[in-house]
Amino acid sequence: MSCEQRRFALDASVVITFSKNGQFDLLEQALATRAYVTDEVYRECQSARINLDAGIALGRILSFTITAPDDLAFFARVHRQMDAGEASAVAAARALSGCVVSDDGEAIAIAGALLGPGNVVGTREVLCFAVEHGHLTAAQAEVHLAAFITGGAYVPNVDTGFFEECPDPEVV
Question: Which end of the chain has fewer CB within 10 Å, C or N?
Fold first, then answer.
């Protein structure tokens, strides 16, 4: 199953990128009510003055609390290698059989090693999902990505023409 068809555990890095650029609705649309934030990510977003309450209340973003003993132990192990928000997103993705959504280079590398290839996506892939589902054209996605980077966001693996490879909405 491709990452696009599963649940998404959001790291604060991607939420902050979309929110600070006035595109939080696009993030919600692209992930189509399959986006989860952990308590730790929620707190990181609050610290960055990003309010997720409306998205959670409307069911566009789902709240996830790590409670299972195995998941808590996994979280504790991962937290030794990265901050609480990133570690909780990785643990949530594992618990949900989903994908981590992060733009943090170190978190991406660790999550990929722990969860396997194809289980980590970032802003670039979220924009591609938006293209695939008809929320943006490839050209608009390129403009958004450029604006995010110009605005100070770190987005790894940026290459020109990436969005041309996203399937047309009619094909999906």
Answer: N
